[in-house]
Amino acid sequence: MSNPSGLAIRGLTKTYGNGVKALAGVDLTVAPGLYGLLGPNGAGKSTLMRTLATLQTPDGGSIHLDGEDVLAAPQRLRARLGYLPQQIGAYPGVSGRDLLERFAWLKGRTDRAARRTEVEVLLERVNLSDAAGRAVADYSGGMLRRFGIAMALIGSPRLLIVDEPTAGLDPAERNRFHRVLADVAAEAVVLLSTHIVEDVENLCGRLAILARGRIVAEGTPAELSAALEGRLWSRVVPRGEALPEAVQLTAVPAGTLAVVVADSAPGGDFAPHRASLEDAYHVALAAAGLSDEEA
Ligand SMILES: Nc1ncnc2c1ncn2[C@@H]1O[C@H](COP(=O)(O)OP(=O)(O)OP(=O)(O)O)[C@@H](O)[C@H]1O
């Protein structure tokens, strides 16, 4: 194994019964820390996440965590896995503390005193100690996401899988959620799947871009944007004027900001454009044959 500590995915494939090739040979090496997985709708992110969480099986390929073969012994991985899905279920009337205790019990925490201690530590870690006696059903969206992390952290997982976490959160809650994730990433592999480029840019040391079931780019946010240095050009196209073929079109007060890729200055009013991760994301998708509309 090239990377005994962390996650190593090789040649992972999955074709659904309806013929959709959701994973077309995914290779990925992820060291402990926060790692971002970016991709448009339908790219295969959830399929990859559910496969890593051993909730479904691939057709081919391998997954190793800390050198151990996950597909050969999924049960062993489950003990070291935390999975935070897009939605956590509704549990009317049950308090955060009680619900967490029940999940800890289900995860094999049979010693009552140890279980209670673990639950209190987790509640503190996600900043929900003060709300622990309140019904989970009354939690805000942000509190629910943090509660989901506490659930996923029962048993100190080595791999935490987080699927599309920040949709619908206000900026303060999103920040709090990110701080908890960064804290967990100090000692585990945290895989954050999202289509919010900004979250990955701010949080993740490295990232991969998934499109049509394949990794089409991989690196640090700075590496991915630096690869476009000197090749991006932009101009504001006034309203009413025809838009050029662009990798990104963004509404601005004076019209539309068009960003194009070209090895030399395209002329007209185009000026050199400093590449962001968002630009790198759109260029990678365009190279994979996905238009901005599809993305
Ligand atoms: N159970 C299934 N049966 C058939 N096709 C599926 C199934 N699950 C997903 N797909 C298809 O596989 C492809 C990848 O889906 P997946 O949900 O993994 O993508 P995603 O990147 O998570 O997208 P999103 O961001 O929209 O959740 C899509 O074309 C989807 O329609």
Task: Explain what the structure shows.
Belongs to the ABC transporter superfamily. Residues 7-237 form the ABC transporter domain. InterPro entries: AAA+_ATPase, ABC_transporter-like_ATP-bd, ABC_transporter-like_CS, P-loop_NTPase. The mean pLDDT is 89. The protein has 295 residues and is α/β, with parallel strands linked by helices. A hairpin with a 5-residue loop joins strand 1 and strand 2. Helix 3 crosses helix 4 (112-125) and helix 5 packs parallel to helix 6 (171-184). The protein is built from 9 helices and 14 strands. The chain has helices spanning 45-52, 74-78, 96-106, 112-125, 141-152, 171-184, 197-203, 221-226, 277-287; strands at residues 7-15, 21-30, 33-38, 60-65, 68-69, 81-84, 159-163, 189-194, 206-211, 214-219, 232-238, 248-252, 255-261, 271-272. The chain has 3 domains: 1-80 and 157-226, Rossmann fold; 89-155, no CATH class; 230-274, no CATH class. Bound molecules: adenosine-5'-triphosphate. Residues 16, 18, 20, 22, 39, 41-47, 195 line the site of adenosine-5'-triphosphate.
